[in-house]
Design goal:
Elements: E1 2-8, H1 18-26, E2 35-41, E3 44-50, E4 63-64, E5 70-78, H2 81-90, H3 100-111, E6 121-129, E7 134-139, E8 148-152, E9 155-159, H4 162-165, H5 177-186, E10 199-201, E11 206-211, E12 214-219, H6 233-251, E13 258-261, H7 266-278, E14 284-290, H8 298-307, E15 311-317, H9 325-332, H10 341-352, E16 357-359, H11 364-368, H12 372-381, H13 384-401, H14 409-415, H15 419-427, H16 432-439, H17 454-458, H18 465-492, E17 496-498, H19 504-511, H20 526-532, H21 538-541, H22 552-555, H23 561-569, H24 581-593, H25 599-614
Parallel strand pairs: 13-14, 13-16, 14-15, 16-17
Antiparallel strand pairs: 1-3, 1-9, 2-3, 4-5, 5-6, 6-7, 7-11, 8-9, 8-10, 11-12
Helix pairs in contact: 2-3, 6-7, 6-19, 6-20, 9-25, 10-18, 12-18, 13-14, 14-15, 23-24, 24-25
């Protein structure tokens, strides 16, 4: 696990500025505190920060092959590197190290760009081919590892994190208004877009090539769904268990101490159960809780820890822990409104005191259809026939009358909508009218409700509603929210996190079967729970889902109320350069009155305020396009 940076100047006559590349690399030191390196060949420069996990003594980067014409910098892990190393040795390749980095070099020599199809891992790497004068950048299938880039007039600047790009004077510091609107709508900036104008993210499962001042981007893998109906459920579940066990087994490979995050939910408990059975040493587990009982799952985490006799550590997050929010927002790179980033930071910080690698249960909800919103969407869809007979018109009329923050307003709005727009209301933060009020003069830039999700609903290809929602989440919410949160918070603490449930073989296998194998008789994660029944307590498997929320609705009505008002409404506020101050004040007042929980909306603006203060230059400019 590491961080990469790079600069490709447009002409062979240009020279990379070493000091600039070093500054870009230094600012992501947290991603790799164990070492750094820079390689410059004329107009090409590659930078690297290393967190040593595999081959502690021999995996330094940038790494070159024996002839020096292939050079790679690599962020991530290739979990099947042992098997690939054996295959490549059989093909005549010799290894000077035992690192997975060298596997990338020889796999590229053997297979060209197709090398990525052989890798099972999480990665973003940049490989310079000096013979072809060509740079290859690749990102893993699910989007676990990040890659930002800026391309203009033939110059390519790239890095694992946005903050490194902002060290280069050619990268602007102007807020993209379209991206700001999307952030307020969804809580993150989705897909290949970025909050900074002119910066993009390489999408998951994609390759970017730079040659002669031109770039090309293409997919090598994508999410697909089928509706197969296996004839033998027991055999299918057994095959799934074999895949999951192997996914866990290869992620236990490490030359440094390793642990597991244990929330007490099904997904993390599954990883603890399987890892305990696959490991020949006692596992360390890490759990996080809250004083507020409705958010606390420590009891269930203890049940699993006791069953598998792990070395268990617990921490409790309280409202005063908001003191770290400014630093957390800085490390998140872009505005990011998922409050669970806060406890994720604290559990990563605690884990790093004991281990360098942790396994997590991330991805289980997206792959096995575990979100409560899927079941809610199915329940709402049952009434669409009635809404189509005139009920939708009545709901639209009611939405114009019922005050914005009254209880029940959300249900009325969802009844008045359908498809992508309805799902956006389910999972979004601010709707269209709210964003228009917040952004004032920029209201003309407001996107329609559910615009991000519309293509998935328009191209259902006969798929069930559950499958469509899973497709949306695997392509958007998972890579742009869940995996961003885990990557940034773990890397802020120089901790590597591995997600066995997102092994691409598991994803492909589960995505093939119909939704009835995932939600059955109102029970989410049906197939996964069947697999886990011999391994986990019934109370863990079949209890009500809690999610990884935090009690900000209480904090923002309690001791943190004045902190929020001072942050957002003082003369030093930066967010109000883009967001209407009166709308923010009304939002705070309505939340305190308690008619409706508006804490998620407030959190989004609090995060944006911290982001403006920590990331932008003193006098930011809003882009005009």
């Amino acid at each position: 696990m590491c961080g990469i940076t790079g600069i490709c100047e447009p002409s062979p006559d240009d020279r990379v500025d070493r000091a600039r590349l070093q500054a870009m690399t230094d600012v992501i030191r947290h991603r790799g505190p164990d070492g750094d390196g820079i390689h410059i060949t004329g107009n090409i420069g590659l930078g690297h920060r290393r967190l040593s996990i595999i081959d502690l003594g021999g995996g330094a980067q940038p790494m070159a092959n024996a002839t020096g014409d292939l050079i790679v910098t690599f962020n991530g892990e290739i979990y099947n590197y042992v098997e690939l190393m054996g295959d490549l040795r059989s093909d005549g390749y010799t290894f000077q190290t035992s690192s997975d980095t060298e596997v990338i070099l020889h796999a590229y020599a053997a297979h060209g760009d197709g090398c990525v199809e052989h890798f099972n891992g999480m990665f973003a790497f940049a490989l310079w081919d000096d013979r072809q004068r060509r740079l290859l950048i690749a990102r893993d299938r699910m989007g676990k590892k990040p890659l930002y880039y800026h391309f203009d007039n033939g110059r390519l600047i790239y890095s694992s994190e946005l903050k490194a790009l902002l060290q280069h004077p050619r990268v602007p510091t102007e807020v993209c208004p379209h991206a700001l609107d999307e952030y307020l709508a969804y809580g993150y900036v989705p897909e290949d877009r970025c909050i900074i104008r002119g910066v993009k993210k390489l999408p998951p499962g994609c390759l970017l090539t730079w040659q002669d001042g031109r770039i090309e981007i293409k997919h090598y893998w994508d999410v697909h769904f089928n509706d197969e109906q296996p004839t033998d459920e027991r055999a299918w579940v057994a095959e799934l268990e074999n895949l999951l066990r192997d996914a866990v087994r290869i992620r236990l490979r490490s030359d440094v101490p390793l642990g597991v995050f244990l929330s007490g939910g099904v997904d993390s408990s599954a990883i603890v159960a399987l890892a305990s059975q696959e490991s020949d040493t006692q596992l360390r587990t890490f759990a996080i809780g809250f004083d507020e009982a409705e958010f606390d799952e420590l009891h269930y985490a203890r049940m699993v820890a006791d069953r598998y006799k792990t070395d268990h550590t617990e921490i409790v997050v309280r409202d005063h822990d908001l003191s770290m929010l400014s630093d957390i927002v800085y490390h998140l790179d872009e505005p990011f409104a998922d409050p669970s980033a806060l406890p994720t930071y604290y559990v990563c910080r605690e884990a790093r005191k004991h281990v360098t690698v942790c396994l997590s249960g991330d991805g289980g909800d997206e792959v096995f259809a575990g979100y409560s919103r899927y079941r809610h969407a199915l329940a709402q869809a049952k009434w669409d026939w009635l809404l189509n007979l005139g009920g939708r018109g009545l709901a639209k009329s009611a939405s114009r009358i019922v005050p914005r923050h009254w209880r029940g307003r959300g249900m009325i709005d969802r009844a008045a909508s359908r498809g992508a727009a309805r799902y956006a209301l389910q999972i979004g933060i601010f709707d269209e009218s709210e964003r228009a009020a917040l952004l004032g003069s920029d209201a003309s830039r407001i996107q329609s409700a559910g615009a991000l999700f519309a293509p998935y609903f328009a191209n259902r290809n006969g798929h069930s509603l559950t499958t469509v929602l899973q497709h949306v989440d695997q392509k958007s919410y998972l890579p742009d929210d869940i995996l961003v949160k885990v990557d940034r918070m773990s890397m802020q603490n120089s901790l590597e996190v591995r997600a066995p449930l997102l092994d691409y073989r598991v994803v492909e296998f589960v995505n093939k079967v119909s939704a009835g194998w995932k939600i059955r008789d109102g029970q989410a994660k049906h197939a996964l729970k069947k697999l886990l029944e011999p391994h986990l307590p019934h109370d863990v498997l079949y209890r009500k889902k809690m999610g990884f929320g935090i009690p900000i609705k209480h904090w923002f009505r309690g001791r943190q109320k004045e902190y929020v008002r001072e942050l957002l409404l003082s003369s030093e506020s930066r967010a109000t350069e883009w967001i209407d101050r009166t709308s923010v004040e009304r939002l705070l007042d309505d939340h305190v009155r308690g008619q409706r929980d508006l804490s998620q909306k407030i959190w989004a603006i609090v995060v944006f305020e911290h982001w403006c203060r920590r990331v932008l230059q003193p006098c930011p400019q809003v882009a005009t396009a």
